[in-house]
Amino acid sequence: MRLNGNPVKASQTVVPGDTIRVRQPGFERILEVHVLIAKRVGAEAASRCYTDHTPERPPAPFLGLPQRDRGAGRPTKKDRREMEKLRGQREG
Asked: Average per-residue pLDDT in the chain?
């Protein structure tokens, strides 16, 4: 997490006009604070207090999931490992 380009801790004070960058898996969210709120509010009310400058995410590549024959029964441990390897969840 960065506040105006500098790394910060959770206790850092935020003021209107600050830019917050949050790294999430695969992309970075960029938010500009307009109004501070004193208590918890719903998502709709909170979204009016900042502007989201996050660029659009590139579409995720579609990898066809392996299909088992109908009636083939439950996959074996070897079958599950092969399916996970195809999905990119396992290395090895």
From this structure: 86
Statement: the pTM of the whole predicted model exceeds 0.85: no
Q: Where exactly are the structural domains of the chain?
A: 2-52
Written as six digits, the tokens of 53 are 């400058």
DSSP string across 32-69: EE----SS---HHHHHTTEEE-PPPPPPPPP-PPP-PP
At 80 the three-state DSSP class reads: helix
Local structure of residue 75 (DSSP, 8 states): P
- Is the torsion defined by CA of 48, 50, 55, 58 positive or negative? negative
pLDDT per residue as tens digits for the range 61-75: 766 666 777 878 888
